[in-house]
Write a structure and sequence with these properties.
Elements lengths: L12 E6 L3 H9 L4 E9 L15 E8 L6 H10 L16 E4 L2 H18 L6 E4 L4 E2 L7 H4 L2 H7 L5 H4 L1 H9 L6 H11 L3 H14 L7
Parallel strand pairs: 4-5
Antiparallel strand pairs: 1-3, 1-4, 2-3, 2-6
Helix pairs in contact: 1-7, 2-3, 8-9
Length: about 220
C-alpha cells in the first residue's frame, strides 16, 4: 500500500491571514482544493518570540502554502472575507483582529482592491489591516491541526510528529474534512491520493457528513 501523503513538492506561494481563532482558520483552509500545507502562529507585531500566553502585539494567523495553478489568491481572499469570527466592523484586541499579511507586491495590490470592494459592499469602513508579512512564529504544537488532534488514535495512525503537524499535506486535508469543511466528492477522490486506509477513510467520511455546515469557531 502507498505511503500516506505527508510531503508534497508542488511549487507554491504563501498567504497569511488573521481572522479570529486560528483553530478555525486551520480547518477552513486545509480542506480547500489547491492548499498544500497550513500552519498557525503569531505574526504582524514586534514582540520577539511570542507565545500563546505572551502574545504581545501579534495576531493569531494562519500561514498557507497554496498551488496558484489550482487556487488563486483571490479565491483565498473570498474565504477570508466570508469567515471572520468577530466580523469586519468590530474593533477587537489585536490577538483576533482582521489582518492580511502580503508576501509580494501583487498580493498587496489584490488585497487592497479586495478591501475596497468589501467596504463598498458593506457600505462602511472595515477594520481589516493590510501589512507586509514579516516574521512568522509558529504556535505551540497543541494548536497545530487542533481539530485533528482531538482524535488521538487518528494522529497515531497517521504517524504525526510535531514537525508533520505543520508540514503534512494529509494532516491539513483531514483537519478540515473532520469538521465538515470541503465536499464529499473531493474527499472520495482524496482517499486514494492521500493513501488513506479503509479505517481512516470510513471515520473521516462519517465526520464530514455529520459536521457539514456546522460552525468552525469555539
Amino acid at each position: 500500500m502507498p505511503s500516506l501523503l505527508h510531503e508534497i513538492t508542488t511549487p507554491f506561494k504563501k498567504a497569511t491571514f488573521g481572522m479570529g481563532c486560528f483553530w478555525a482558520c486551520d480547518a477552513l483552509f486545509g480542506a480547500q482544493p489547491g492548499v498544500l500545507r497550513t500552519r498557525v502562529g503569531y505574526a504582524g507585531g514586534t514582540t520577539l518570540d511570542p507565545q500563546y500566553r505572551k502574545i504581545g502585539d501579534h495576531t493569531e494567523v494562519i500561514e498557507i502554502d497554496y498551488d496558484p495553478k489550482v487556487v488563486s489568491y483571490e479565491d483565498l481572499l473570498k474565504l477570508f472575507w466570508s469567515n471572520h469570527e468577530y466580523g469586519l466592523t468590530n474593533i477587537i484586541k489585536r490577538q483576533y483582529m482582521s489582518l492580511i499579511l502580503y508576501h509580494d507586491d501583487d498580493q498587496k495590490r489584490i488585497a487592497e482592491i479586495s478591501l475596497k470592494k468589501e467596504a463598498h459592499k458593506h457600505n462602511t469602513k472595515l477594520v481589516t489591516e493590510i501589512k507586509p508579512a514579516g516574521a512568522f512564529y509558529p504556535a505551540e504544537n497543541y494548536h497545530q491541526k487542533y481539530r485533528l488532534q482531538e482524535h488521538t488514535w487518528l494522529c497515531e495512525e497517521l504517524g504525526l510528529t510535531p514537525e508533520l503537524l505543520q508540514t503534512s499535506h494529509v494532516a491539513a486535508r483531514l483537519n478540515g474534512y473532520l469538521v465538515g469543511v470541503g465536499k464529499l466528492e473531493d474527499f472520495e477522490k482524496d482517499i486514494a491520493k492521500l493513501a488513506l486506509t479503509d479505517k481512516i477513510a470510513s471515520f473521516v467520511r462519517a465526520q464530514l457528513i455529520e459536521n457539514e455546515g456546522g460552525s468552525l469557531y469555539c
